[in-house]
Amino acid sequence: MDIKKISPKFVVSPQIAPEDMEAIKAEGIRAIICNRPDGEGADQPGFAEIEAAAKAAGLDVRYVPVQSGMVTDADVASFADALNDLPRPILAYCRTGTRSATLWSLHEAQNRPMAEILAATKAAGYDMNGVARRIANGGKTPTDTGDAHFQVVIVGAGSGGISVAASLKSRKPDLQIAVIDPADIHFYQPGWTMVGGGIFDAKSTAKTMGSLIPKGVHWIKAAVAAFEPQNNAVVLDGCRVVKYDRLVVCPGLKLDWGQVEGLEETLGRNGVTSNYRYDLAPYTWQLVQEMKQGRALFTQPPMPIKCAGAPQKALYLSADAWFRRKVLGNIDIQFMNAGGVLFGVKDYVPALMKYIEKYDATLNFFHNLVSVDGSAKKATFKVAKPDTDPQEVTVEFDMMHVCPPQVAPDFIRVSPLADAAGWVDVDQATLRHKSYDNIWSLGDVMNAPNAKTAAAARKQAPTVADNIVADIAGHSPTAAYDGYGSCPLTVERGKIVLAEFGYGGVLKPSFPAWAIDGTKPTRAAWFLKERMLPSIYWQAMLKGKEWMAKPEPLKVAAE
Predict the structure, then answer these.
(1) 221, HSE (Cβ side, Cα atoms, 13 Å)
(2) For 451, which of 10, 49, 212, 426 is 20 to 30 Å away at the CA?
(3) Is 487 noted as a catalytic residue in this protein?
(4) How far apart are CA 307 and CA 484, in angstroms?
(5) How many Cβ atoms sit within 10 Å of the Cβ of residue 425?
(6) Per the database record, which ranges form the Beta-lactamase hydrolase-like protein phosphatase-like domain (predicted)?
(7) Nearest alpha-carbon partner for 225 in 410, 411, 407, 409
(8) How many domains does the chain have?
(9) Does 202 share its domain with 121?
(10) Residue 98: domain span
(11) Rounded distance, CA 492 to CA 485, Å?
């Protein structure tokens, strides 16, 4: 007997035997549904035997037989009747449990989001992506899929999606491309650090999505519910289906505020803020201006996160503002970092440490934020130092800048495209999916071991575009991404440590050292960040103009 929990009140199992009833009852099960027709297998006990044993054990039982591979809408309705009639928890079984899991998924389609259904069944060992269209259609078999078809479909219209669309159009103007994204507004997220530091106005970091979609690219304003890579199809909310010859997946990542108990309830008030949200970055600057004394916490969760330097950028710009106002001596700055180092590439640490010392900030490594009591202004951290037992510490604060935990979007994590950790599984050089030859991914959602920054997407987009064009021509991949990422660390107003690096922490400077030495704070790097990069983003990167972003040629190993 192999019971697999799908929800607190519903479990499934492969074929059970009459002698299993006492063990089933001991698990707290109160009713059984048989979804396997009699006579399907020679060694299969008949339902009458199961029914007699179940009743003898005091269990309710129901027979809802379903033909293997043929779960009809009528079957789902019968299953729903059984669920409504029987006491819970319920165990449903068939030969392997798959039919029972399918019936539950289709029944729950009217009550639960698809991602939740796919996640629950996946955790139990059942992949329901094969019935994704029906789940999206409220559990019923679609009568009209209304398929649209494009040569290239791009999921996500963030920096990666629009850039790769523009880069593809610049290479093949006649290419039929669709971009799928439900958002009305596109944000220049690298600017939010500057908003939180009082340098940029928040409105300057936002433009309407419609103004940015490249000319000739079809915008499908909808959310993706699921992928059917075996059918070259993307399923949208509402069960619309978009077919593709080639697919690019770049929806970004999910800021998982809910992982920290009490955080969502207090964001934007009680001194709790975050530059990771458009509406909160101005509040960061408000708090910095108002603060004259007390304790300021700056948190960083476990990796991966987008722009790994952003949590400390907020610290530096805040501290610099307090330094200039001559109140820094009255403020206790604490950097609460779930990791064990200040910055992952050691070449930049000496310059950063000078500013940590200048601002008299305390570094607290292996401190991961787990809960916030906003009204009491207390934050609790799990401290997990190497070779010591984990413990929790609670720290009072007057201001706290939070970097939230970050995960792949729900519809990605439960899809066939994801690796075990939930990220899109790609070759780190070509950015092509490891299992599906006509799928590529870029940006924050894929699993290459690079820094998740807009600068990385700027380099990745031409690589993906080159390789898709080569694939269309029937050739092997031609371009390689070297892991480039850039993190302009705003150590004070007017100076930046420009960290640029690739896979393995190898330095990848864009400029000669006499122009910008990235390992030292420079005014030239600040000028680049404040004056040049926003224009490069809006006017070059999103328009397919690959300034300093030409892809590297792929080196093929000699046979």
Answers:
(1) 8
(2) 212
(3) yes
(4) 13
(5) 20
(6) 2-109
(7) 411
(8) 3
(9) no
(10) 4-136
(11) 21
Domain assignment present for 63: yes
Contact 368, 382 (CB under 8 A): yes
Looking up residue 338, the CATH number of its domain turns out to be 3.50.50.60
Q: Where on the phi/psi map is residue 146: left (φ > 0), alpha (ψ -120 to 50), or beta?
A: left
Same domain for 105 and 170?
Answer: no
Type of residue numbered 36: R
- 367 in the same domain as 280: yes
Domain boundary among 371, 405, 439: 405
- Is residue 237 domain-shared with residue 284, that is, in the same domain? no
Strands annotated E in 131-170: 148-155
CA geometry: angle 337, 340, 419, nearest 5 deg: 90
CB 257 within 8 A of CB 406: no
Same domain, yes or no: 126 and 186: no
Q: Are strands 60-63 and 206-208 parallel, antiparallel or unpaired?
A: unpaired
Using CB atoms within 10 A of its CB, is residue 323 exposed (0-12), middle (13-18) or buried (19+)? middle
Of the residues 352, 379, 405, which one is the last residue of a structural domain?
A: 405
Q: Residue 306 has which token pair?
A: 């987008």
Q: What phi-psi label fits residue 554: left (phi over 0), alpha (psi between -120 and 50 degrees) or beta?
A: beta
Report the C-alpha gap between 248 and 336 in whole angstroms: 36
Local confidence pLDDT in tens for the 559 residues of the chain: 899 999 999 999 999 999 999 999 999 999 999 999 999 988 899 999 999 999 999 999 999 999 888 899 999 999 999 999 999 999 999 999 999 999 999 999 988 999 999 999 999 999 998 898 899 888 888 766 667 999 999 999 999 999 999 999 999 999 999 999 999 999 999 999 999 999 999 999 999 999 999 999 999 999 999 999 999 999 998 778 999 999 999 999 999 999 999 999 999 999 999 999 999 999 999 999 999 999 999 999 999 988 888 999 999 999 999 999 999 999 999 999 999 999 999 999 999 999 999 999 999 999 999 999 999 999 999 999 998 999 999 999 999 999 999 999 999 999 999 999 999 999 999 999 999 999 999 999 999 999 999 999 999 999 999 999 999 999 999 999 999 999 999 999 999 999 999 999 999 999 998 889 999 999 999 999 999 999 999 999 999 998 877 888 888 654 4
Structural contact between residues 238 and 221, judged by C-beta atoms closer than 8 angstroms? no
142 domain residue, yes or no: no
